[in-house]
Specification:
This protein is α/β, with parallel strands linked by helices. The chain has two domains: 122 residues, P-loop containing nucleotide triphosphate hydrolases (Rossmann fold, 3-Layer(aba) Sandwich); 77 residues, no CATH class. It is built from five helices and 13 strands. Strands 5-4-6-7-3-8-9-10-11 form a nine-stranded mixed sheet, sandwiched between helices. It is globular, with a radius of gyration of 17 Å. The two termini are 18 Å apart.
Length: 219
């Protein structure tokens, strides 16, 4: 599904992980940790002209971000906002459509409420590399398999990752997806059926949160 009004675009490989095929303006997406998935979620919107910001992630590389489609000229970096991170994120949301932030600790309910109110007013998207109770969408890398290593030698060339999505409403219905994160050429793409590990194909069922029914997650 191609994102419509009120939705910021994501890379094609990530669309099926999100309830409406993109990032819903005014919402929070919890990512659990900072990794390539976090940067990949910024790529398409930045390439489409959105201003993006990254706060509290000093290891985030501009070159890696640019390789995923981000426009360095429309990217703001605040490596270490420290204890002032709520105020820094609020300020970034005033000028940027997407903010990726890693809080130094668990955000209090008061801070979450204040930033969510700012999000709704500014129509931005907050990606949190950490826990965010009540986030409408949560994405987690639940398994990784690297390629390129032989018998104790070689170079890591690509990573096959299983990404699980859950959250509230529509997000609770989404199946896990296997992605190349990254592929050998540095891009993020959907994995084909032959790429998925045999063990995953043989146990390709998942239990929807809050339900006793079993669903197929790999087709």
């Amino acid at each position: 599904m191609v994102p419509g009004a009120g939705i910021l675009p994501v890379l094609p490989a990530l669309r099926e992980l999100l309830p409406r095929g993109g990032l819903v303006r005014g919402s929070v997406v919890s990512l659990g940790e900072f990794d390539l998935l976090a940067l990949a979620l910024l790529g398409a919107a930045s390439a489409d002209g959105a201003w993006c910001a990254i706060a509290g992630v000093p290891e985030a590389g501009v070159l890696a971000a640019a390789g995923l489609g981000m426009d360095p000229d429309r990217m703001l970096l605040v490596p270490d906002p420290a204890d002032a991170w709520p105020e820094v994120v609020a300020s970034l949301l005033d000028g940027c459509e997407i903010v990726l932030a890693r809080p130094p600790g668990q955000a209090t309910a008061q801070i979450r409420k204040r930033l969510e109110a700012r999000l709704r007013r500014r129509r931005g998207v907050l990606l949190v590399a950490g826990d965010w109770p009540g986030a409408p969408v949560r994405l987690r890398v639940t398994a990784r398999r690297w390629t390129g290593l032989g018998d104790g030698h070689g170079r890591l060339r690509a990573c096959l990752a299983e990404v699980a999505a859950d959250g509230r409403g529509e997000a609770a219905m989404l199946p896990a997806r296997w992605l190349w994160l990254p592929a050998e050429d540095g891009t993020v793409t959907a994995a084909g059926p032959v790429d998925i590990p045999d063990t995953a194909r043989s146990s390709a069922a998942w239990r929807r949160p809050g339900s006793g029914r079993m669903h197929r997650s790999l087709r």
